[in-house]
Amino acid sequence: MRLRRAPILMKMENGQSPKEKYLHDFTYHGKELSFTEAKNIMFQYLDSSGSVDLEKDANGIAKIRLSNPRFKNAINVKMMSDLEEITEKLSQWTDCKGAIVYGAGGNFCSGGDLNMAKKINNSYYGYAMNIYIGHILDKFKRLPIITVAYIEGAGALGGGAEITTACDYRLMCNAVDTTAIGFVHSKMGIVPAWGSTARLVSIMGVRKTLDLLLESRLFSAAEAMDSGLVDGAVATMADAETWLSHKIRADVNVIRAIKRMVQCYDDSPETVRMIESRIFAPLWGGPANQAAIEKHLKHKR
């Protein structure tokens, strides 16, 4: 099935080229993709480096480690495949109460892997990436457990910041002044790709989300807490575990029931994700995004 293609005029009064007109439609006009189709496309670029690792403890807490230290845990297809498998395992672990997502080597996540971005830098692949990764994070968000992102080191940037919104809570390490969280997408010529826009509106409200995405700046722990983006500041991973343990004192079935009940009031996430994917796709691989990738802007602070 193909989406309706808007007419593209070859000659325009304002001087825009057809490609610019296509971009300014803010709508992807290519082939719709199912999750399975998108996964098959992304698996053509499956990298052997990096992993996402799961550790369970006897108290019903899972630790999920993003591990690609060479690139400050930047996310690639292999890592998202691992997260998909971990999400399935957690859905079947009936004694699980909560999970902490953190990064290896003292850093959380610097975003999407730049090498991957260069290989799939057009709207069709951008749409496939959005469908694939967005679906996995949506599924992780719906787990009937309490999830926390522990942000430390260089912090959570771009796609890394998006991953934190798939968690119920966000904690930042206050032991290092340079730890930050930043939705830096506009500097890369794009918008959030993995479902975080709707989650941000739910977390912060419309106006603060607009400010966050338009300004595209880095927030310290104190600023992120003041804005409502982050729920607390702690010094160590052990402190994050203690923080979570206070949230999950109730019986496991009560905790899981509360999580499911609260999620019933989400505003049609499937519809929001569908709209987001069509807005994001034409920006991915567009002139601003290509220029930013060539300048390696994502890794500059």
Characterization of this structure:
The protein has 2 domains: about 35-250, 2-enoyl-CoA Hydratase, Chain A, domain 1; about 250-300, no CATH class. Mean pLDDT is about 90; it is low at about 1-15. The chain contains 13 helices and 9 strands. The strands form 2 sheets. The chain has a 6-stranded mixed beta sheet with strand order 1-2-3-4-6-9, with helices on both faces. The protein has a 3-stranded mixed beta sheet with strand order 5-7-8. The protein is globular, with a radius of gyration of 19 Å. The chain is α/β, with parallel strands linked by helices and about 300 residues long.
Task: Map the helices and strands.
Blueprint: H1 18-24, H2 35-42, E1 51-56, E2 61-67, H3 77-92, E3 98-103, H4 114-119, H5 123-141, E4 146-151, E5 156-157, H6 159-165, E6 169-173, E7 181-182, H7 196-204, H8 206-215, E8 218-219, H9 221-227, E9 232-234, H10 237-247, H11 252-263, H12 269-283, H13 287-294
Parallel strand pairs: 2-3, 3-4, 4-6, 5-7, 6-9
Antiparallel strand pairs: 1-2, 7-8
Helix pairs in contact: 2-5, 3-5, 5-12, 6-7, 7-8
